[in-house]
Amino acid sequence: MKHFFLASLTIGALCAPVAFAAQTAAPAAPAAPIRDVAGYTFAVVARGDGSVVWWGRAPSGEVAVPTPFALPGPAQRVAVGASSAYALLEDGTVVAWGDNDEGQLGNGPSGKSKPIGTYPKPSMTPVRVTDLAGITAIAAGLKHAIALRKDGTVWAWGVRDDGAIGDGDAKPAGSLRVVSAAAPVAVRGLTGITQIASGHTHCLALTGDGKVMSWGSNSTGELGIGTRATGWVPAEVTGLSNIVAIAAGTGQGTYGVSAAVRQDGTLWVWGSGSSAMMGNGVRNPSPDDPGGRNLLPLQVKGIAGVKNVAVGSGHIAALLNDGSVRAWGMNGYGEVGRGANSSYEALPVKVPGLTNVVTLRLGGYGSYAIRSDGTLWIWGFALGSRGLVGHNLAAPTRLDLP
């Protein structure tokens, strides 16, 4: 069940862990409020001034504590894959760094696929993703990434296996192997898109009229189309309307999970039921059990007033309108944030002591929240090896960055 992938660099000042009982006290504002955070086996944070800090098991090796990482411009959004990272800069372009074996850095020749048998060079120096401009959002899977342009189109690059690029089953003449996209290509048929999300090997897009489109792998019904057929091009998720937020992630292994919030504050989840991710009281069915594969969206009961949702690797969290958080799923590393480890939390539970949350992110076995005062709070699996980030945290704990 273990699959780890992230990292970071030199040493900065870390605060001591905050006592769980004291977390309800309003902390002083940080020196540089946090803009965005993403995590998997490593974490990347964009601070208020656009500078970036990272830590964990990165492509360059272990980054033991949060460490500044130089970019060619200020970052407004960040995303991470298995062993690559991405930053959306203030000028609307995207840079990437890390491994590149499937073209996931996206810096290949425009319109070209990765030739069979070749392995594009990795880069620990950020490189520009080819031909991307006017970008408003980014998301990453294990070895692919997607970007939303301000004109409402979606662009993707990296591994094409299982349809993650969404431009069709692209096999060269005479080949049985789907080839990777070494530079961004347009996801077929998508216009008027307002949000994007990516799991390990599947993607979601939200249309301006509140519908959800999905494509990519579909072994446990994560596309929500009523079948387990691979989505080589986007298709509409069945039975959803008036959607305002989307998220994608995984259950155990690489089984996909998807989630969506309706305008009425209800939350809907589909895909793998492993790790109690449906939030319906079923703890951990196998894919062949009832509830193990959910081919259509299911409403999560006992939760209302949802504003946003995030999906990790085995756990889900919902941000409510009042700034509080509910979470459920696997909790072996404390990633549900209830103050103690447990195997699974099969129903949504309130994350104690966490208030005024404006941004919620899950990645791998880690959880991250940005509060309205700009502070960053983390819990779950330890990505680093020293200081606060060197310990699994069963409750949200403030992390001050260098």
Number of domains: 1
Shape: globular
CATH homologous superfamily designation: Regulator of chromosome condensation 1/beta-lactamase-inhibitor protein II
**Annotation, overall tally of beta strands:** 28
Structural class: mainly beta
Count of DSSP helices?
A: 0
Keywords, separated by commas or semicolons:
402 residues; mainly beta; Methylamine Dehydrogenase, Chain H; globular
Summarize the structure in words.
This protein has 402 residues and is mainly β. The protein has a single domain, classed as Methylamine Dehydrogenase, Chain H (7 Propeller). Helix content is 0%, strand content 44%. The protein has strands at 34-39, 42-47, 52-58, 61-69, 75-80, 84-89, 94-98, 123-128, 135-140, 144-149, 154-158, 181-186, 193-198, 202-207, 212-216, 231-236, 243-250, 256-262, 267-272, 293-299, 306-311, 315-320, 325-331, 342-350, 357-363, 366-371, 376-380, 393-399. The strands form 7 sheets. The chain has a 4-stranded antiparallel β-sheet, with no helix packed on it. Strands 5-6-7-8 form a 4-stranded antiparallel β-sheet, with no helix packed on it. It is globular.
